[in-house]
Amino acid sequence: MEPAESSCHCQPRCVLRVVLPMLMLACLGRTYLADSRLSWSMAVVRGEMKRLAPNPLVTLIDHVAADAGSSATTDIPAIATELTAAQSTTTYEIVSAAQVTPQPSPTATLPSTNSTFTQTTSAPHAFTRLEPMPSLFYLADQENLQRSKAKCPQEVRVSEWNGRIGNHYFQVSQAIVAALFCHTTHVRFPPHINTRYQQQDGLLDMPEELTLPGVDLHEDLKVPSSCPPQPTHKWYHQHCRMVPAWHHRQVMQTFLQPYLGKTLVGLVHASRDIGADRILTIHLRADDIRQYNKYEWGQPPCSMYQKIISDYGYKTLLIVAKSNPVTKRSDAACDSWLVDYGRLHGINITRPNDMTLAGDLSAMIRAQNFVLSFSSFSLSTVLLSNEIKVMYRRRDAKWHSILHSIINCNVWTGVTMYEYNTSLQQDNRKGSPSEWLKTFPVEQITGPFTCQHGSDMMPEL
């Protein structure tokens, strides 16, 4: 015979039967008595948002709260405007390489994220940024994105490294952009390479397999019409077209920057002289310029540097070029021209202290005011930079058809790019490109034309 159930055994069940209905009634009463916007709850939420948000967003939160108090609807365009302003005032925080734990594994997984990016110590090196960014899949999820009939692949693969280190940085970004458009989470890269021509030691330690954040949805999607249907190739000459420069920067800062080589990272973090904001950095493509005539025709004429220096009052130039270590001059047409111009006009001409490949890259990554050359070497550095403020480039070069550039007029917040036009077209090129660069008259240069975040991606001239 089972013992009779005592009152002590019944007590917890009785308590639940009485207390739970009372709690439900209390909650319902609280909701009923609150106003239509649940002001008490919203006050708590706003307080927590203000406590956790960066300072530039606190004012925005207050404005949204004020709008909610005066109207039942919220002005979305106004919020977007204030968010853009807040984003442009956000600062960067640099973490030294010594603070980051190395992870030399050939396979890497990036942290899952949707709205903001935070570099973690799971990768070899990182420059931590505090900049709010759109979702990685913002462009991929646009309703008006036209897609082809080709199915999205299970993975995207870079078949081999193309050319030199600037091209390698391009390849990494192009492949990952294509993967993001398809919500494909696996990207493969060739093994680390270091030959006389293709040097990655100290510059890039990309894992052979990279797992991207997010849910893999490739089975439900088609390849965008602007992207090549084949998932495996070099991802340099073939790539997704008309991708905003800000998205390539987003990709390179998130996925490539953590895997920059130790030598390069150390130089980027080295101490620097005061007054960097008043220095104009100029990259001159020099060592291979005579071998590839079409690339020399795309360089800025010397008079364009003259116009920039005159218009903006620069008194110090930092010339980055592969130079003779004795003469400290390069074969670029405008190198000696700039030295002579500086001597005549009281302009101070300087060169990087470290004249190695890593030294040149770090000098450009650290630049705040930068004249781009017609080269992936210089273009990739501004996408990796957290310090660039102003860029200048020649507008009418064949950026897309020849260079496969990932820089265009739709740049990122906090940066302005000024373009200058020479109106030189393919059909009126005559004589030596070096002679043309040195003699093109400054009076025939038009501009500057301003490019900012949200600017139209202009077609190639």
* Helical content class: 25-40%
Instruction: Spell out the helices and strands N to C.
Output: HHHHEEEHEEEEHHEHHEHEHEHEEHE
Number of DSSP helices? 13
Taking strands numbered 1, 2, ... along the chain, how are they ordered across the largest sheet?
10-9-8-11-12-13-14
Percent of residues in beta strands? 5-15%
Keywords:
461 residues; alpha/beta; Rossmann fold; seven-stranded mixed β-sheet; five-stranded mixed β-sheet; 14 strands; 12% strand; DeoC protein
What does this structure look like?
This is DeoC protein. It is built from 13 helices and 14 strands. The protein is globular, with a radius of gyration of 28 Å. The protein is of the alpha/beta class and 461 residues long. The protein has two domains: 97-264, no CATH class; 273-451, Rossmann fold (3-Layer(aba) Sandwich). Strand 3, helix 5 and strand 4 form a beta-alpha-beta unit. The protein has helices at 7-33, 39-52, 55-70, 76-88, 165-181, 245-256, 262-268, 293-297, 302-312, 333-345, 357-365, 376-384, 433-439, and strands at 107-109, 147-151, 156-158, 186-188, 209-211, 222-224, 232-233, 279-283, 316-320, 348-350, 369-371, 390-394, 416-421, 446-451. The longest helix has 27 residues, at 7-33. The relative contact order is 0.10. The strands form three sheets. It has a seven-stranded mixed beta sheet, with helices on both faces.
Itemize the secondary structure elements and their pairings.
Layout: H1 7-33, H2 39-52, H3 55-70, H4 76-88, E1 107-109, E2 147-151, E3 156-158, H5 165-181, E4 186-188, E5 209-211, E6 222-224, E7 232-233, H6 245-256, H7 262-268, E8 279-283, H8 293-297, H9 302-312, E9 316-320, H10 333-345, E10 348-350, H11 357-365, E11 369-371, H12 376-384, E12 390-394, E13 416-421, H13 433-439, E14 446-451
Helix pairs in contact: 2-3, 3-4, 5-6, 5-12, 7-11, 11-12
Organism: Symbiodinium natans
Protein name: DeoC protein
